[in-house]
Amino acid sequence: MGGTVTAVSRSGEHDFSKPNEPSVRLLAGLGVEGDAHLGVTVQHRSRVAQDPTQPNLRQVHLIHAELHEELAMAGYPVEPGELGENITTRGVDLLALPRGTRLHLGERAVVEVTGLRNPCLQIDGFRDGLLKQVVGRDEQGNVVRKAGIMGIVLEGGEVRPGDGIAVELPEGPFEALERV
After folding, report:
1. Quick check: 94 and 149 in contact, CB under 8 A?
2. What is d(CA 129, CA 44) in angstroms, rounded to the nearest whole number?
3. In the chain, domain spans
4. Which class in CATH covers the domain with range 2-168?
5. Which of 48, 59, 87 is nearest to 154 (CA)?
6. Predicted confidence (pLDDT) per residue in 53-111, tens digit
7. For residue 154, what are the contacts with CB-CB under 8 A and spacing of at least 6?
8. How much is the pTM?
9. Which residue of 51, 61, 126, 151 is surrounded by the most CB atoms within 10 Å?
């Protein structure tokens, strides 16, 4: 099971979108070098306000390029990095991965999946109505979040568009992803 990195992005500011880069360096235990969410403890502003000592389970944000295609078909064209992701992927069903999955990116980097991104109202500030496209409900009324996954960096390394992604599932029983 594997896929490909299609884009990498980062921003040193707490902006909604992140510009694409030729490569990004992942730093073990910290996140994406030069990104505003880099750190051992939480960097997301609303979470810092709640408790700045909580661990940063959101060091790296990954979104599948297939979501961009789905959004474009619904009338919401979105480019890689515009939803704030650091790594855009293709060929891996990110949302179906269990917690603890390890994604081997490029030659050395390893990201452990911690949970789902919980998109907020800022997404409607980017494109009005977009929040309803990435958060919905299934037939049983459960919330479905489609805006990507979050992870922590276990092993650092350079990641570039075109790099392969190898998926290493954790030992069972699998835990479904929850918002982090």
Report:
1. yes
2. 23
3. 2-168
4. mainly beta
5. 59
6. 899 999 999 999 999 999 999 999 999 999 999 999 999 999 999 999 999 999 999 99
7. 28, 102, 110, 111, 112
8. 0.95
9. 151
